[in-house]
Design a protein that fits this description.
37% helix; Aldehyde Dehydrogenase, Chain A, domain 1; globular; alpha/beta; Aldehyde Dehydrogenase, Chain A, domain 2; 23 strands; 17 helices; 6-stranded mixed sheet; 2 domains; binds nicotinamide-adenine-dinucleotide; disordered N terminus
C-alpha cells in the first residue's frame, strides 16, 4: 500500500459518488450499477461512477431534444458568450482540474496541464463561430434570382471519449457542437469520469441553458443506448480501433452521421543527418510521455544507415534513466499505466515479442516504485530485432515500449513506415529539406511531423487520422467540426416585384 494520497476526490475525504447531468440537474440514474475509480499510482479508491442503463440514457436524450428549439433559435453571437465564460472558468480551475486528471489517469501534472490547455484552445476556436458558421451566396444566378447556403444545426449529438485525455478529447467536440446550435450529450470514459464531472459543473456555471449540455456516465450498454436512440443525430467517437469500427457501423446503420477515431501504431524515421541529441529528446517524450498512452505516441522508430548506433545508445540511456512515479511528485517524468489489466496486457505482449525473437535492450517489467508498490507501473522499455510483421511492430501496445527497426535508405524506411494498418501519425527526423519533402509527400498517415514527435494539430486544424485510425470523413476540431455538426441548406429565391426595379 502506497502513502495516503493528498486528494481523494472532488470535495471530500471519502470516495465521491459521481452523478449524471441531465436537463440541467445532477441525477443518480435509477438502478445503475457502480464502478470504482482508483488512482493508478496508489490504487486508492477515489470515486464510484454509475453505469447508466438505457432508460436513463433516453431521459437525457429527450431532455436535450426539448432544449433544442430554443437553443437553435438563440443567435450564434449569444451562444458563444457561454463559451467565453467557460474558457475563463477553465482557466480559473486549471490547477484543480489538472490534479484530478493526474489522480484518475496517472499522467504527470505538466501533461495534465498541457491537455487542458488544448481543451481551452478548442473553446477559443469555437468562440469564432459567428464567422465559422457563415454560408455562401450568389446574387443573380439567373436574372432576379439569388442563391444562398446556410448552415443549420442537427439537433441532439453525442460524443463518446477514451481514458487517455479526460480533459481534452471531450473538447474536440463539445464547443463546436453547442456553438453551432446543437444540444450535446457526453459519455466520457468510465475509467476517468471525475474530470468531466468538474468540467460539466463549469459548463453549468457558464450559464448554458438546461439540456444544452448533458453528461451520462457508463460503458458499452450506455453507448449502445445512445447509438440506437432515434433522436440522436450524430455520433463522435474516440477510442480503440475495434470499438471505433463497431460504433461507426452501428451509428451509420441507424442513419446517424458519425466520425470515429481509432487506435494507432505510429512510426518515426531517424536519418543519419538528424540532430541526434534533439531527436532523441523529442522522441523519448513521444515514446514515454503519458506512459505511451497517447494516440500520437511514437511506438516504432526506424533508423536509417548510420543513425542506428548513435540513436540506440542515446535512447537506451534515456529509457533507463527516466524518472517514473506518481504524476504529482516533483521531478517525475512518467506515471503509471491506467490499470492492472493494461499492465498485464503490455507485459504479455512483451513476452510474445520475446518468444518471436525480439531482444529487450531495456526491460521495464517487474520494477516497483518506492512508496507506490501497488501502482500499475511499467518502466520505459526498448526492443530491438523485432520482426517488422511481428507482434511488437504491428500491435498497438499503448504503453511505454519502443520497437526499433532499421533500414538502408529513406525509401526503404518509408516503405516500412507505410507497412501497417493504422495511419494516425508519422514523423521524420532529418536536416534535409529534400528528404522531408519526399517523406511528407509519400507517407501514408494523416498527421505528419518533421523533427516533431507528437504532431497534434492545433484546434483550428482537423485531427487527421487515416486508414484504421479513422472511420468517417469529417475529422474533429476546427472547420471540420463546424461541417460535421451542421446541415447545409441551399435556398434559391425570386422576388417578382424586385425584378422590374431599374437603377
Ligand atoms: P476504448 O475503445 O476501450 O473506449 C473508448 C470509449 O468507448 C469509452 O468511452 C468506452 O466506454 C467505450 N466503449 C468501450 N467498449 C465499447 C463497446 N464494446 N461498445 C461501445 N462502446 C465501448 O478506448 P480506451 O482504452 O478508453 O482509449 C484508448 C484507445 O483510444 C487507444 O486505442 C488509442 O489509440 C485511442 N485513441 C485514439 C485517438 C485518436 O485521435 N485517434 C485519441 C485518443 C485515444
Amino acid at each position: 500500500m502506497g502513502p495516503e494520497p493528498r486528494y481523494r476526490g472532488l470535495m471530500s475525504n471519502q470516495p465521491v459518488e459521481l452523478l449524471n447531468f441531465v436537463g440541467g440537474a445532477w441525477t443518480r440514474p435509477d438502478g445503475a450499477p457502480r464502478l470504482d475509480i482508483v488512482d493508478p499510482a496508489t490504487t486508492v479508491q477515489l470515486a464510484t461512477v454509475p453505469l447508466t442503463p438505457p432508460e436513463a440514457v433516453g431521459q437525457a436524450v429527450e431532455a436535450a431534444h426539448a432544449a433544442f428549439p430554443d437553443w437553435r433559435a438563440t443567435p450564434v453571437v449569444e451562444r458563444v458568450q457561454h463559451l467565453y465564460r467557460l474558457k475563463a472558468l477553465m482557466e480559473r480551475d486549471l490547477d484543480e482540474l489538472a490534479r484530478t486528471i493526474t489522480h484518475e489517469n496517472g499522467k504527470t501534472l505538466a501533461e495534465s496541464i498541457g491537455e487542458l490547455q488544448r481543451g481551452i484552445e478548442n473553446v477559443e476556436v469555437a468562440c469564432g463561430m459567428p464567422t465559422l458558421i457563415q454560408g455562401w451566396n450568389n446574387e443573380d444566378i439567373a436574372r432576379g434570382i439569388d442563391e444562398h447556403l446556410f448552415r443549420q444545426p442537427l439537433g441532439v449529438v453525442t460524443a463518446i471519449t477514451p481514458f487517455n485525455f479526460p480533459g481534452m478529447i471531450p473538447f474536440w467536440f463539445l464547443p463546436y457542437a453547442v456553438a453551432t446550435g446543437n444540444c450535446f450529450v457526453l459519455k466520457p470514459s468510465e475509467r476517468v469520469p471525475m474530470t468531466m464531472q468538474h468540467l460539466i459543473r463549469l459548463c453549468d456555471e457558464a450559464g448554458f441553458p438546461k439540456g444544452v449540455i448533458s453528461l451520462v456516465n457508463g460503458g458499452r450498454e450506455t453507448v449502445e443506448a445512445l447509438l440506437d436512440h432515434p433522436l440522436v443525430r450524430a455520433v463522435s467517437f474516440v477510442g480503440s480501433t475495434p470499438v471505433a469500427k463497431a460504433v461507426y457501423t452501428r451509428a451509420t446503420a441507424n442513419g446517424k452521421r458519425a466520425q470515429c477515431q481509432g487506435g494507432a501504431k505510429n512510426p518515426a524515421i531517424v536519418l543519419p543527418d538528424a540532430d541526434m541529441d534533439m531527436s532523441t529528446r523529442i522522441l523519448a517524450d513521444s515514446l514515454f510521455g503519458c506512459a505511451g498512452q497517447r494516440c500520437l505516441a511514437t511506438s516504432v522508430v526506424i533508423t536509417v544507415g548510420d543513425a542506428k548506433a548513435p540513436f540506440t545508445e542515446r535512447i537506451t540511456h534515456d529509457a533507463s534513466t527516466r524518472r517514473v512515479g506518481h504524476g504529482l511528485d516533483e521531478g517525475v517524468q512518467m506515471g503509471p499505466v491506467i490499470s492492472a489489466t493494461s499492465k498485464q496486457r503490455i507485459e504479455r505482449l512483451l513476452d510474445t515479442g520475446v518468444s518471436e525473437g525480439a531482444e529487450l535492450l531495456v526491460d521495464g517489467r517487474g520494477k516497483t516504485v518506492g512508496g507506490y508498490e501497488n501502482g500499475y507501473f511499467i518502466h520505459p522499455t526498448v526492443v530491438d530485432n523485432a520482426h517488422p510483421h511481428g507482434t511488437l511492430a504491428t500491435t498497438e501496445i499503448f504503453g511505454p515500449v519502443l520497437t526499433m527497426l532499421h533500414a538502408d535508405s529513406l525509401d526503404q524506411a518509408i516503405a516500412l513506415a507505410n507497412d501497417r494498418a493504422f495511419g494516425n501519425q508519422a514523423c521524420l527526423f532529418t536536416s534535409s529539406g529534400a528528404a522531408a519533402r519526399a517523406f511528407r509527400n509519400q507517407v501514408d498517415a494523416g498527421n505528419v511531423g518533421i523533427n516533431l514527435g507528437v504532431a497534434a494539430p492545433m484546434a483550428f486544424f482537423p485531427f487527421s487520422g487515416w486508414n484504421e485510425s479513422f472511420f468517417g470523413d469529417l475529422h474533429a476540431q476546427g472547420r471540420h467540426g463546424v461541417e460535421f455538426y451542421t446541415n447545409t441548406k441551399v435556398v434559391i429565391e425570386r422576388w417578382p416585384s424586385a425584378w422590374t426595379r431599374r437603377f
